[in-house]
Amino acid sequence: MTLRVAISDDALALACGADQVAEAIARAAPDADIIRVSSWGMHWLEPLVEVDGIGYGPATVADVAAILDGSSRLNIGKISDHPFITKQQRLTFARAGITQPLDLEDYQATGGWLGLAKARELGADAIIETVTESGLRGRGGAGFPAGIKWKTVAGADGPQKYVVCNADEGDSGTFADRMLMEGDPYCLIEGMAIAGLAVGADKGYIYVRSEYPHAIAKLNAAILASAHIVAPFDIEVRVGAGAYVCGEETSLLESLEGKRGEVRAKPPLPALEGLFGKPTVVNNVLTLAAVPYILANGAKAYADYGIGRSRGTMPIQLAGNLKYGGLFETAFGITLGELVTDIGGGTQSGRPVKAVQVGGPLGAFHPASDFHLPFDYEAFTAADGLIGHGGIVVFDETADMLSQAHFAMEFCAAESCGKCTPCRLGSVRGMEVLDRIKAGGRVAADPVESLPQMHNAPKQGRSLDEELSLITDLCETMKFGSLCALGGFTPYPVMSAIKHWPEDFGASADMVKDKS
Amino acid sequence: MDKAARLEEIVAAHVGRDGPLLPILHDIQAEFGCVDEQAKRYLAGALNLSRAEVHGVVSFYHDFKAKPAKLPVLKLCRAEACQARDCDTLVKDISAVAKDKCEIETVYCLGLCSVGPNAMVGEDVHARLDVQKLTQLIEAL
């Protein structure tokens, strides 16, 4: 019997040396049937080699001989029985680790195209009703109900409409979009085709960030191979150009039109006047990829997962200083503590966890006292945070929260599109205030503020307490005055850092009590 | 083939596409390593845009460079997840090695956030970097 060896060709596995391991196996066992599959999402084990169902990882070229004769100490047993996998509820990532990403037969054999067939049978109105009933909300971060968005586009006038997939996954700590595009591209294509049927669009764009060349290549190949199945729906991949703000939907549309990625004011909503002024559905990769399951299995099957108004599952991304990082798809409701401690295994460095940033660079930092929070849109909002795109970045006790707050402002300054003042200027002023806080508050008066025209400026410098009040005030302005989430959410990491770790700012807990 | 003719060819390959400027700019950047004054002037004429509009787009995006890189470019992620895995110390330790061998470009996130610090050279990605691995990578450029 030929040996069946499966190794992932996901970018993360490649970065960890999967190609070299695969080549070594091909040399050592020329008769083996080596296939390249998607990644299971157990990233600490990559490159993970599967030999007749048994997993070995993280494998190096030196381990190959022992892996092939079964004596390797990297043996983790049957991969599908691994606790990291059995604890999950994988709906969107059901094929992860199992199928070959571009193999149409694999896709069909694992329930592919059933959702699209069902959608064709149901027709537009019933598709939208099903998606609405499933409770699916936008997985990009805003959490807007997908069914309502689709209904708005479906109801808009016009012969030309578009489906745009937002694959500009710029948040640090997130990689689920990338894994899906590389590991199961047909699932995204199917989801887009269903969206097209629902709203009456025949053209779709996938806007992928340029940092994901592997995803771009897989998508292009998959679109070509499946064009006859989704026809007359037509999909084109467009590549971003390194601007974080283009993950914001209106900025993304500007960029797709070939312009500077400057945010648009809303209204008009993109659903009514989107790409090239036409009604446009803009959804995240994970939102669209959840749709085939919902259509194939019914709204209830999806809505049965989750809590409160957060229905279904969320592919959560465990990243940063974690022992067991990777992709963990589960129903809403799991607590932050379970994710970090039980699933993630605590920090890789072995030091205690200091802060957990949830939701990317614009998400709040949570201390261990927030570990009871259930993963749910509303629960995180109530705790002055957000779940965003579901990325979790863990920091150990060596993290300096003043530096992290400063980085948040610096990042906003670097990536601001420049259209609105609170974001463009506020981020730079925020960096300056944090620099002064680092120096212990300003002692000398600022020459500009001392000018007679500057009526409201203090004439003898500011104390630490006053600097903290100033940044609180600035964050308030950015939060409510910015056009989009970049300027509007940068205050989350900054204020949460001040609130939970005042000592890193040289302040006492009393000093920050009334500031948040 | 001279540059003007090549520019013409690149633009011609995108005829009929809606909003073609970004794909064209990507092709120009890939071919010449930069989007220079000549390219911007040509594009303005070819796409019926003002030079200011073209310059505005080119200068907005980090991927488009005004001049080609003199040394091989190594993109190193310095976003939060890699910070949590101590990429900042790595950057300090590696600066002497990198000095005249490559240009280290800071990027924010390569999407490999559970196995950082990470880097990308061309389309090749590298994870779990430490000083030793990164030094080897730079030496091999």
Topology:
The complex is a heterodimer of chains A (516) and B (141).
Chain A: E1 4-8, H1 11-15, H2 18-28, E2 33-37, E3 49-51, E4 54-56, H3 64-68, E5 75-78, H4 83-86, H5 104-109, H6 114-122, H7 124-134, H8 146-155, E6 162-167, H9 176-183, H10 185-199, E7 203-208, H11 213-230, E8 234-239, H12 249-256, E9 280-284, H13 285-297, H14 299-303, E10 306-307, E11 310-311, E12 313-320, E13 326-331, H15 336-343, E14 353-358, E15 365-366, H16 377-382, E16 391-396, H17 401-415, H18 421-438, H19 464-481, H20 485-489, H21 491-500, H22 509-513
Chain B: H1 3-12, H2 21-32, H3 37-46, H4 51-60, E1 73-77, H5 80-83, H6 87-98, E2 103-107, E3 119-121, E4 124-126, H7 131-139
Helix pairs in contact in B: 1-3, 3-4, 6-7
Indicate the CATH topology of the largest domain in chain A.
Answer: Rossmann fold
What's the total helix number of chain B? 7
Supply the CATH superfamily name of the largest domain in chain B. Answer: Glutaredoxin
How large is the count of helical segments of chain A?
A: 22
Strand order of the largest sheet of chain B: 2-1-3-4
- Biggest sheet record of chain B: 4 strands, mixed
pLDDT averaged over residues of chain B: 95
Write down how many β-strands of chain A occur, each being a DSSP E stretch of 2 or more residues.
16
Q: How helix-rich are the residues of chain A, as a percent range?
A: 40-55%
| Helix-strand pattern of chain B | HHHHEHHEEEH
List keywords for this structure.
heterodimer, A: 516 residues, alpha/beta, Glutaredoxin, Rossmann fold, Ubiquitin-like (UB roll), 4 domains, five-stranded mixed beta sheet, 22 helices, 16 strands, B: 141 residues, alpha+beta, 2 domains, four-stranded mixed beta sheet
